[in-house]
Amino acid sequence: MMFSGGNFLIIGRAGMDFYADPPGTKFEEATHFTTALGGSSANIAAGLTRLDQRAALVTCVSDDAVGRYCLGQLDAYGIDRTHVHRVGGEARNSLAVVETRLEDCQSVIYRNGAADFEMTKEHVENINYADYDALVTTGTVLASEPSRGAAFMAFEKARAAGVPLVFDIDYRPYSWTSADEAASVYARAGSLCDIIIGNDEEFGFMAGDYANGLEKARGLVAGQSTLAIYKMGPKGAITITKQGETRSGVFPTRALKPTGAGDSFMAAFLASLADARPLSEAVVRGSAAASIVVGRVGCAPAMPTPAELDEKLAAYHDISEISDAYSTA
Question: Which residues pair with 196 in a beta bridge?
Fold first, then answer.
């Protein structure tokens, strides 16, 4: 599946990340922290702009200093914030406090009264969806009203405009009132989207049984979806289309942390499709981007440029050799 161009509309949160500094430091021993743009949707948008694509974010931020920090970061990454709205009252931007370490890595998320959940139908109803080549959303935006209703309205309007829908499952249990509610809402979202990306645990959750995650991904493609990517961590991924399945592996890397891989995979994967690269190559480039980001501090600031991504791939003579060399088949 190709996009007609590289202009992406992304729904979901922008937040602030605090990283214990220097890398390897535990929270309880930290005296210094560095800041970075956070939030899965904002991270994906940053990854896309770093890869010379265009990205516009649809969300709400708090009308305070933290919200202004996020707005400034969106500007710094060249992310269009025409559809980013400030909300006052008790709404607060999400904050993640993260360790840059592999062993027992802690990531503590503060989401009470999250500003991004204040996104309403009024924020999405007048967007000209035909201006964009794809609508991308992460599952967190569906965890609460009114943002859930706004997201589904955006789905309907994008589909009416002929814009493909891309869904990153991104299941975060702490954002939901119950697992049953989350499963029901995800089932509805999955039935509407063209491309669905998630890991084995997330698809297993959607299936109601972790052992049945792969069958769930296959079932989605048998229905509305054009393709699903079933990620299995160090075991690689399975790309499922209506024509069949392809297994691919991961790039060996020296990781600093486990976070950021999913957002970077999504950004590089979408950018590759926008550049009219074959699907198999898009998956490989997504995997390469993920291997780069886990080796750096942060997520948004760790996203690779085209030159960095090409350098990572340059060690391999042929795209097909990467899949063969690290295949789990």
Answer: 167, 228
What are the structural domain ranges in the chain? 10-325
Pair 209, 170: CB distance under 8 Å = no
Per-residue pLDDT of the chain (329 residues; tens, 9 = 90+): 568 889 999 999 999 999 999 999 999 999 999 999 999 999 999 999 999 999 999 999 999 999 999 999 999 999 999 999 999 999 999 999 999 999 899 999 999 899 999 999 999 999 999 999 999 999 999 999 999 999 999 999 999 999 999 999 999 988 899 989 999 999 999 999 999 999 999 999 999 888 999 999 999 999 989 999 999 988 999 999 999 999 998 888 889 999 999 999 999 999 999 999 999 999 999 999 999 999 999 999 999 999 999 999 987 654 444 544 433 33
pTM above 0.70, yes or no: yes
Cβ neighbors of 158 (< 8 A, separation 6 or more) are: 9, 129, 132, 135, 164, 165
Exposure string (b/e) for 123-135, b if CB count within 10 Å is 16 or more? Answer: bbeebebeebbbb
Q: Identify residue 289 by its one-letter amino acid code.
A: A
| Inter-residue contact 225 to 204 (CB < 8 Å) | no
Cβ contact 12:59 at 8 Å: yes
113: left (phi over 0), alpha (psi -120 to 50) or beta: left
* Phi–psi pair at 296, nearest 5 degrees: -130, 160
How far apart CA 233 and CA 261 sit, in angstroms, is: 9
Distance between CA atoms of 307 and 273, rounded to whole angstroms? 17
Superfamily grouping for domain 10-325 = Ribokinase (3.40.1190.20)
**What DSSP state is assigned to residue 201?**
H
Nearest-angstrom CA–CA distance, 324 and 68: 46
